[in-house]
Amino acid sequence: xxxxxRTKYRKAFKGRIKGKASRAITLxxxxxxxxxxxxxxxxxxxxxxxxxxxTRYMKRTGKVWTRVFPNIPVSKKPTEVRMGxxxxxxxxxxxxxxPGRIIFEIDGVSEEVAREALYKASAKLPIKxxxxxx
Length: 134
Known about the structure:
Layout: E1 32-36, E2 40-43, H1 44-57, E3 63-66, E4 72-76, E5 89-97, E6 102-107, H2 111-122, E7 129-133
Antiparallel strand pairs: 1-6, 1-7, 2-5, 3-6, 4-5
Helix pairs in contact: 1-2
């Protein structure tokens, strides 16, 4: 599971995801990519599940780049705990994805394989995505 080695603060505010992405909006590494179409938090497990689905379908040919990293700690209180008594401890890490951001890039495979592989990866993510190519 993806998570940062260390963070400045142990707990973070929930925050809101406003506006469109200004970074990672063009293909820099690969020939094909998966672009986010709506804002949401994507957790480390979802990124890893999508990456595994992607590489399995590609049969480990070609190359995959992940352009997002979960660096926001998401805290959660245990079940059946009363209100108050402070904020819960960090449960997992997520990354805030804005619309227009490229999540994965792949290269070294044909367009048909890339399209199907990225479709399978998008099924593991909680957001609507779009296939893009150079």
